[in-house]
Amino acid sequence: MKLELSHIAIACPSIIAVAERLKVLSLQIAETHEVPTEKVRAAMLPVNVSEHFRLELLEPTQPDSPISKFLLKRPHGGIHHVSFVVREIEKWQALLVQSGFEILSPGIRKAARGKALFIHPQSMGGVLVELEEINE
What we know:
The chain has 136 residues and is of the alpha+beta class. The protein is 19% helix and 21% strand.
């Protein structure tokens, strides 16, 4: 048997507002439907899955780690961020800044598999988003 990722759900006060922001990342709503049993509206945005896709488990190694701070608020853990693989991360950073997105300091940084930048949750409907350029 094989386990396949279905989706990552993001709660938001306005699908339209968040979807407008996601267009900068080339993500578009493909379908919207109501789920009466849950009293919600759901919009589905298809994404291509990278051959590099993995589930990443993060454990702090120092008390001042961002993950330590995250765990203070959520002692049992939880979704920390959503990551997308990109090429030419410098161009993505320029596009995001030009489009009014807040990039977390220091901007582009060394990451586990290459370079990354993080988009502030306030710019992405409350979700921390990472763009990752993987060294191949």
